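User: Hey, quick favor. My workstation is busy. Could you predict this chain's structure for me?
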Amino acid sequence: SRTNQTCTHMSLSWLGVCEVNEPITALSFDPFEELFWVGNEQGAIASFTNTEFAKYSGFIGHERPVGGIIVEDSGILSFSADRIRLHHRRGIPALDLKTSPHFSVEDPLVDLVQSTSNRNMFFLGGSSLQLMDLSQGQYIHSFALQAGCTQLEMERMLCCAHTDGSITFHDPRSLNEESRVHVFPGGIVQDFTVQGHVMVACGFVKKRGQMFFDPYFHLYDLRYNRSLGNIVSPTPTLKLKFHPTLSSTFAALSSDGQCYMFGLQ
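Assistant: No problem, here it is.
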């Protein structure tokens, strides 16, 4: 089976689980403290300790679901469908930007990632790709997409998941598409995460005209754009994220408010 074939190449272990009670919509590991941050459907943002998964702090960041979180030395940067906000670690607001004219509640901002070459530059994804200078609040460059963006990751290339089940890889300077992987043909990429040359993805597949959650994590080797096999997901997954300092460890956030940690070997 697909599961047995995968297990011959890598083993899987649960490292821990935390309860958040509300559906989780965002996750980010803290590079400055031993914490990770989550956002939920109600717009709340909270931090937990890495070792014991104990709640450390929390505040209301948005009026809408939190779409994503980036932990900066200056504070906690987060976004919702139509706003980008920076809060100090105890929740005091420091910056509040509206994402117009490119994004709105009807045409929402789906994801935001930071450039690796300039900390003031951010890539925004939705119905199009945008490059924004956050320090100036100005949009620098735009790139039209054939299918809407569901998730962004910044590695050597800008990685973009789409509503047609594919993941594309873009030049971060021009935003031009360089290559493409069809992970869920005819389906939807819910989320993916990249560490080095390994990518893990989850999403939906189309069967008999309807969308069903794919019960597997799909692993890819990006050096050759080839599959490394599939691993059974314990629950429908909303978000995936590799840990920034623990090699080959990733988190999976479920729709029932749980956070699973996995180790790949």
